[in-house]
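This week, work through this protein record:
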Amino acid sequence: MPGSLIVWILSALLILGVLTQSWWEPRLAARGLDVQALPLRWWLTGYPRIAVRMRWTWRRLAMLNGLSVSYRANQRMLGRDMFVQGQALRPKPPRLSWPMPTKSGGLRVRIMLHPGQTPAPYYAAARAMEHTWRVHGVRVTSPRRGQVLITVTAIDPLTGKAPVRTGPSELLAAAVGRVEEGEPWVVDFRRVPHWLVTGATQSGKSSLLAALVLALSPQPVALVGIDCKGGMELGLFGRRLATLATDRTQALAVLSAVLTEIQDRMHTCRTAGVRSIWDLPDAQRPVPMVVIVDELAELYLTDGSRESRDEAEQCGTLLLRLAQLGAALGVYLVAAGQRVGSDLGPRVTALRAQLGGRIAHRAHDEASAEMTLGDINPDAVIVAQTITEDEKGVAVFATGGRWTRARSHLVTTSDVAAITATNPPPDPFRSGPPTVGPAEKGASMP
């Protein structure tokens, strides 16, 4: 009788809530709670099903993947000098907390390790958990000693509808898409000053650069473009760019002007007795500058002539000095290309070591992904190779040893028009703009 009474009460409350939805929904919206945006379907159907499956299969999963332990001895002495080694019977799985739902359509669960256990076996068992629980992804971390935190992503949030865009955030923090946990994908230049973006043709590099420009356009940040494909990609953003180089000769002039600006800012900081432009008063602080290089390999490839080799060497040197000196002086670098390997020259390897932020789109081979993510995390290299041709804009986003999958915004024609209509900040080159062709100084292009 008590059980049936509870069912009747819950049913009555559900019917009452549906009948009065037109009354309470607008009142909650007025208080800032959008009911339509809540993942009610996930909480009512998806979460209970996966939570029960996790609890039901945990003991068998732990036993098959070596996560269970036994407090009994695994050897026994027979006679005086003979020992028999074997597997201890009645292993005990670690304690699993009740799975808690997340807003992004996932779960989090904590595991208390047995004495003597380490998180390493749980890292190795992540794939087994995905298949056993029938979920999209499982991320295993160890935030505290003696504990393992398992974050489950039930469905792939990077597929389906486009990511929801967010408005301007902090200075030099650009929301360019969404990560697989459902949160905004933010490229923060104040935290990670220089970025490397790689990927095959039509994998989403240009879309990411366009989303980056779109997010930075409302901010008082100068954008400098180097697009040696004749400006076909970055030239669309018109006057919002402080300057645009469309070939290597112009790129050499732009990079020389950027390095001269860096030296002027160093002199300003040294005179003021500060270590970065962010310690200067607002009235004296120069405009932050983001240098975006599309198709980095075009700056390093040569035709064999001495003049071409000299230009490539100078471009490589200037880019390396920009990455080494620019962070504290408000000059940041985004370098994009299909391959950024040692086959382009030793200076490319040195430059890659200075680019702390890594973004790898779909690659044709393991070596391309290894060049971008190999020194960050080997698992990220494997994940980058699983991105298919249908997942345009999906990439592996890695900083400081941590990585996640993400998807950039799709920038439409109206977005490009909005970018070109944005008023740029003052000219960041205080010693004079670089000498490039008239069509590359930010003039609007058809």
